[in-house]
Design brief:
- By secondary structure, this protein is α/β, with parallel strands linked by helices.
- The chain has two domains: 283 residues, Aldehyde Dehydrogenase, Chain A, domain 1 (3-Layer(aba) Sandwich), CATH 3.40.605; 193 residues, Aldehyde Dehydrogenase, Chain A, domain 2 (3-Layer(aba) Sandwich).
- It is built from 16 helices and 23 strands.
- The strands form six sheets. The chain has a seven-stranded mixed sheet, sandwiched between helices. The chain has a six-stranded mixed sheet with strand order 10-9-8-11-12-22. The protein has a three-stranded antiparallel sheet with strand order 1-3-2.
- The structure holds nicotinamide-adenine-dinucleotide (NAD).
Length: 496
């Protein structure tokens, strides 16, 4: 049932009613009878309901995207990106409001939300370069009187299945590039915090994105499954936990789809004795506890090498003890709540398990409360000492404000320790030695490496994604990889 025929005017949010899907340029209520609540993780206040969209809803969205494809593909690339230029301006204009909305449904502080929106905008800006990025190659006289050229062509309908931790930015690692290259797109956002992206889609429609080019279907793994099984979906961009990423990769392979599946992480930060230890400790605090540790680039194990260990431990503990934990919209909040009660319980269980495995709890965030917010999903900053790679807590992604400390006697030993972990997303080294930094980047075997950088986040013009258990696929998000992923290189060999 269509609830409004105007793409740009989303029906007013009634927290009792499931939020609409966006299909073929219209806001449409799902045919599902079930919906999940979306809560403010700091206050527990209900913010809306997410429909568990049905197979029929997914089929309607894919059909709309398929129908829109021929005309959109035939739209010149320069005209396609003009829509994105307008979207970029609208996103800037609304950035502050969007950041506040995002803070309410995710919990991180407003500055972090504004930073996330900026990263989304940068992907729109990079996608505006498509007329150049999408160019092919030519060679005259590959044989006598014969010329050869490649052209990049879009493939049709792509789909994105995205996680809760960056609900604005991560969808924008994908759909701006997909549509700029002439494809159409179906997005299934996280069911935990899908509200702010509704506004982004509204702005895209306002910027002039034609009906059916970008569609949203809300729901959980059932809607994701219907997307994965749909024969008209040419490719899948997935971001989430590794177990699901592996499964998505396998399913997409079975159904012959292109796939890029970005998974979880367990990132190490290695600090050498020659590092600026105040600087390294500050970087650790922001990397580990920023966004309450719910970042795939968060460093969650700090490896102090030699005498750096005790010195950096003392500094980090001192700073972590005084971090301001509170409601994301309150001024001066450094760290907000985690996304849900269930996730808080999982993080606390992992801390308990770490303690049972022999780690000592140097700073305990279990049972943390914030005055005035009794319903918030709080975990205070937590530091575990003696987190070894062989233990569960040393192997598993916690995705909360928990720092594990361990020591090594050399860079080589620190690298060997990282190699015992299944993940390969990001890592950082802090040192003043160019030689040590070179050894580290040479042998780390991890995809995103920070040298004196605590959060090794590639900008939009560079690829974003991990390796080993953190990534299934070959072409990553953002950058030139996005252009490769969303187009096929077709070779034309001509004789006249
Ligand atoms: P999640 O795996 O629970 O969910 C991600 C998406 O997959 C959601 O849209 C969800 O509805 C869908 N989904 C869940 N189960 C599914 C199934 N069985 N089949 C198909 N789809 C399914 O992840 P999350 O809790 O939302 O996000 C946190 C995870 O995402 C962490 O592991 C984090 O490291 C990871 N992450 C990775 C990156 C990266 O760049 N590698 C970036 C951000 C987040």
């Amino acid at each position: 049932m269509a609830v409004s025929t105007t793409a740009q005017s989303r029906p007013t949010d009634d927290v009792e009613l499931p939020i609409p899907n966006f299909i073929g340029g219209e806001w449409i209520r799902s045919s599902a009878s079930d919906a999940l609540p979306v809560h403010d993780p700091g206050t527990g206040e209900p913010l809306g309901r997410v429909p568990l969209s049905t197979r029929d809803d997914v089929h309607a969205a894919v059909a709309a995207a398929k129908e829109a494809f021929p005309a959109w593909r035939a739209t010149p690339a320069v005209d396609r990106v003009r829509v994105l230029f307008r979207l970029q301006a609208l996103l800037h204009e609304h950035r502050d409001d969007l950041a506040r909305d995002l803070s309410r449904e995710h919990g991180k502080n407003v500055a972090e939300c504004s930073g996330e929106i900026q990263r989304g905008i940068e992907n729109v800006e990079h996608a505006c370069c498509i007329p150049t990025l999408m160019m092919g190659d030519t060679l005259e006289d590959v044989a006598r009187g014969i010329d050869c050229e490649t052209v990049r062509q879009p493939l049709g309908v792509f789909a994105g299945i995205t996680p809760y931790n960056f609900p604005v930015m991560i969808p924008m690692w994908f759909w701006p590039y997909a549509v700029a290259t002439g494809n159409t797109f179906v997005l299934k956002p996280s069911e935990q915090d899908p509200l702010t992206h509704q506004r982004i889609v509204e702005l895209a429609a306002q910027a002039g994105l034609p009906s059916g080019v970008l569609n949203i279907v809300h729901g959980d793994h059932s809607a994701a499954d219907a997307i994965l099984e749909h024969p008209d979906v040419a490719g899948i961009s997935f971001v989430g936990s590794s177990a699901v990423a592996r499964m998505v990769y396998a399913k997409a392979a079975q159904t012959g789809k292109r796939v890029q599946a970005l998974g979880g992480a367990k990132n190490h930060m290695v600090v050498l004795p020659d590092a600026d230890l105040d600087f390294a400790s500050e970087a650790a605090i922001s990397s580990v506890f920023g966004s309450a540790g719910q970042r795939c680039l968060a460093n969650s194990v700090l490896v102090g090498v030699g005498e750096a260990y005790d010195r950096v431990k003392e500094r980090v503990l001192d700073r972590a003890t005084s971090l301001r934990v509170g409601y994301g919209l309150d001024e001066d909040t450094f760290m907000g709540p985690v996304i849900s009660r269930r996730h808080r319980d999982r993080v606390v269980d992992l801390i308990d398990q770490g303690e049972r495995e022999g780690a000592s709890v140097a700073l305990d965030g279990r049972g943390f409360q914030v005055d005035g917010y009794p319903e918030g999903h709080w975990v205070g900053p937590t530091v575990l000492e003696g987190v070894e790679p062989g233990t569960h807590v040393g192997q598993e992604e916690i995705f909360g404000p928990v720092l594990g400390l361990t020591r090594a006697e050399s860079v080589e030993e620190a690298i060997a320790l990282m190699h015992e972990i299944e993940y390969g997303n990001a890592t950082s080294i802090f040192t003043q030695s160019g030689r040590a930094a070179r050894e580290f980047r040479y042998h780390a075997g991890i995809s995103m490496i920070g040298v004196n950088i605590g959060v090794a986040a590639p900008m939009a013009c560079f690829p974003f994604g991990g390796s080993r258990g953190s990534f299934y696929g070959d072409l990553k998000a953002q950058g030139k990889d996005a252009v490769e992923f969303f187009t096929d290189k077709r070779v034309i060999i001509s004789r006249w």
